[in-house]
Write a structure and sequence with these properties.
There is one protein chain. With about 160 residues, this protein is an all-alpha fold. It has a single domain, classed as Ferritin (Up-down Bundle). It is about 75% helix and about 0% strand. The protein has six helices and no strands. The radius of gyration is 18 Å and the shape is elongated. The C terminus is likely disordered. The structure holds fe (ii) ion (FE2). Fe (ii) ion binds next to helix 2, helix 4 and helix 5.
């Protein structure tokens, strides 16, 4: 495997690491169970991507660059995501997932060995699914589920 591919895999590892951290912030800011469940699952996907990509780098005899510093942080609005609530978290992750989708698409434009392409394609499919669900959640104002349910439970408002 050539150096360029190893570099690209390390770039994706950094991207997925940023996504895990961004999801951590988003999860802290969320209260609606359905949103929380999805964000946690998406975060698990990104965590799995890091492991699978790192394995490919090691198989090529290189050391995966698993960085934790925020200097190279690609995901926007990191510190501002938490405490914005469900809507804010979804809006922030919408932008972040658009970025991860773009970066995975770009990686697939490279010539890749079959075993690398298989992993990158699988990850890209996860990214598509994440973006699709978040778009649906934003379009459907899923954050209103909480307010509606709380109103019914407290009996302060009618169910309508
Ligand atoms: Fe994602």
């Amino acid at each position: 495997m050539n150096k360029k591919i190893v570099e690209k895999l390390n770039d994706l590892i950094q991207l997925d690491t940023d996504a895990v951290l961004a999801y951590q912030q988003a999860i802290v800011g969320c209260e609606v169970t359905e949103i929380l469940d999805h964000l946690k699952r998406f975060q698990d996907d990104h965590q799995r991507h890091i492991g699978d990509l790192a394995e490919l780098v090691r198989a090529a005899g290189e050391e995966p660059m698993i960085k934790r510093d925020l200097k190279g942080f690609l995901i926007e609005g990191f510190t501002a995501i938490a405490s914005r609530g469900d809507r804010g978290a979804l809006m922030a992750m919408l932008g972040n997932e658009e970025l991860t989708n773009m970066r995975y698409e770009a990686a697939l434009e490279m010539e890749l060995p079959d075993e690398v392409r298989a992993v990158v394609e699988r990850n890209r499919e996860d990214e598509r699914r994440h973006l699709e669900w978040i778009k649906e959640a934003v379009a459907g104002s899923f954050w209103d589920i909480k307010e509606g349910a709380a109103a019914i439970a407290s009996g302060k408002k009618s169910a309508a």
